[in-house]
Amino acid sequence: MPSDLPPPDVLALLICDQIITDRITGKQSLIGMFSKIHAPGFPAAHPQLSVFVTLTDGDLPSRGDVSVVVGPLAPAEVDLANIRDDMDYIGTAREVSLESGGVPVAAMGPISVALHYPQYDVGSLEEAKFGLFEWNVLTDRWTLAGAANSPRGNTVGAETERLGELGLFFWDALGFDDDAGLSGVLTEPNPFSPNGDGLYDEMILTFYLSREADHVNVEFYDLAGKLARRLIWHQPTEYTGRTPVKIEWDGTDMHGQVVPYGIYVMRVEAKFRQQPTYERVNAPVVVIK
Prior knowledge:
Layout (H helix, E strand, L loop, with lengths): L9 E7 L1 E4 L6 E4 L18 E6 L10 E7 L14 E14 L2 E3 L5 E6 L13 E7 L4 E6 L1 E3 L4 E6 L3 E8 L10 E7 L14 E7 L3 E10 L4 E11 L7 E5 L12 E11 L5 E10 L2
Antiparallel strand pairs: 1-4, 2-3, 5-6, 6-7, 6-13, 8-12, 9-10, 9-13, 11-12, 14-15, 15-18, 16-17, 16-19, 19-20
């Protein structure tokens, strides 16, 4: 790297058991990720350890040079042709972008975005089922970014890397349940097609935890009961409240290969210290060409 460029920034540093790279797509899968290392003392020796690090190129503008540009979208500019039957637009949409020196730049990682909605747009809709959606220009469809809902503050937020048109919608499938430890389990898009064409290549799983979980498991099984992919296993997860946990599946199996097309059963399990101590949700996930 030229000496006149600034040093790169660390975007991510993850510790895991194994890193698998798909030879066809180049996508990398991290197996056995964990956030804590238990040892009687440090420094400590580990028999097998993989470290995944992502850096900037070193020639990107500094964070102080990047501006967030937010502009309103008129009702006529919000495409509502392809929304689901159980969705309603609640009247708030914005065009969000990043600029440096007047030139658009891409996000270097997830960005937290929150949009405010006026109370008079709520009507009879249940605010706990409001979500922040992204407009996908390739598929002409609104897809869920997240649903960190704050009814008292009339805001809905999410972390997203896909800026552009963002809007607030009521969706009956959303919802946070204070009485359940695990709630709001949702997959989007479903079906999805991990074929590398840039359209619905990944599926995002979101769910809520109303209290701290001793561990969370996320697995996918084929209809014969064979394990296709284990994304999370015995991972302690903190209380998230109205901020959903987001997990991505790229449609690959434990060896980094794309799974056969078909229907899979997603199993999300959480173990808590308080009653009920064990909660599970099973849901179908469809992988298509």
